[in-house]
Amino acid sequence: MEKKMNGQINQSCPIVDLHASWLALNPIHGCINSCKYCFLNKYNIRGIKPNILVEPKAAYELLKASEYYCENFPLCLFTSTDVFATKMNIDYCLELLELFSVNKLKNTIV
């Protein structure tokens, strides 16, 4: 996935990624929390400031343009951060969900 280098995140996984039972959308990587139980531990992206890789509109466009995109496939958001850990993450999520609503995205969100 990603590795922390000099305190910065080096993106090495796609923003839109196909998993076994969902399509992941991860436009923000990193988490300020340092929870010992967190699955982000294996990617070394916890305990650091979240990094916005693309703005919400670009994330939406990447999703829709992805070769994996299908409106019947569940969409899992923000698995590379804690979306509620910072105001920046929350604001980003709200803007992205508004884009989904305005554009009538039909995917189930998980």
Task: Explain the layout of strands and helices.
Layout: E1 3-5, E2 8-10, E3 16-18, E4 23-25, E5 28-29, E6 51-52, H1 56-65, E7 75-77, H2 87-102
Parallel strand pairs: 4-7
Antiparallel strand pairs: 1-2, 3-4, 5-6
Helix pairs in contact: 1-2
Descriptive notes:
- By secondary structure, the chain is α+β, with helices and mostly antiparallel strands.
- It contains two helices and seven strands; from the N terminus they run ββββββαβα.
- β3 and β4 form a beta hairpin.
- α1 packs across α2.
Q: Write the H/E string, N to C.
A: EEEEEEHEH
What's the story with the biggest beta sheet? 3 strands, mixed
Tell me, rounded to a whole number, the average pLDDT.
Answer: 88
The termini sit apart by: 21 Å
Low-pLDDT runs of 5+ residues are 1-10
How do you describe this structure in short?
With 110 residues, this protein is an alpha+beta fold.
Keywords:
110 residues, alpha+beta, three-stranded mixed beta sheet, two-stranded antiparallel sheet, 2 helices, disordered N terminus
